[in-house]
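Case study.
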Amino acid sequence: MHISELGSLIKRRRKTLGINQKQLSELTEIGLRTIKGLEAGKTNPTFKTILTLLDVLGMELMIRTKK
Amino acid sequence: MHISELGSLIKRRRKTLGINQKQLSELTEIGLRTIKGLEAGKTNPTFKTILTLLDVLGMELMIRTKK
DNA sequence: AACAAAAGTGCAGTAAACTGCCTTTTATAT
DNA sequence: ATATAAAAGGCAGTTTACTGCACTTTTGTT
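After joint prediction, the assembly is written out as follows.
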């Protein structure tokens, strides 16, 4: 998992749910400009931003030791 | 998963591996002050910082849709 | 108890995330 | 072909993550 992956993953999920960037911005209360930059893989988002987005998108993040 | 969880998770893993904060800082090339703040749950780290730490700690991050 | 190592904390500078505003490009209709 | 909606991108201001330095507190060892 790296940053560009994260962006495309969120973009894909958003489209699956049938919402646009503006709607996602309103639902998450994250600035539209931030969402655009993140989906394009052009910024290095903070943990909070990621968690807020995943929550609204019905996704979860897990961390575990590599086997 | 929220920020304080992330901090304690990383701290626990670091101790399991038997290294101190300074060594982790050197291995990851992330500032010692940053690691201290993160383990204490006092900052909102960036995705890059998290991924770098997890990598050196032999951990991985996954994202999936909630069932 | 004394000492050393590790961890925690305040402060200040730099870089970058976050944000809004506005313009341009691209896609999707009619 | 035009009009509309969605996405992309430049720019500038504000906030905050990241960092080093210096000092304090806690933990562990002899």
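Observations recorded in class. Chain B touches chain A at residues 1-3, 6, 9, 13, 44-48, 50-51, 54, 58-66 (CB under 8 Å). Chain B has a mean pLDDT of 97. We will return to this complex in the next lecture.
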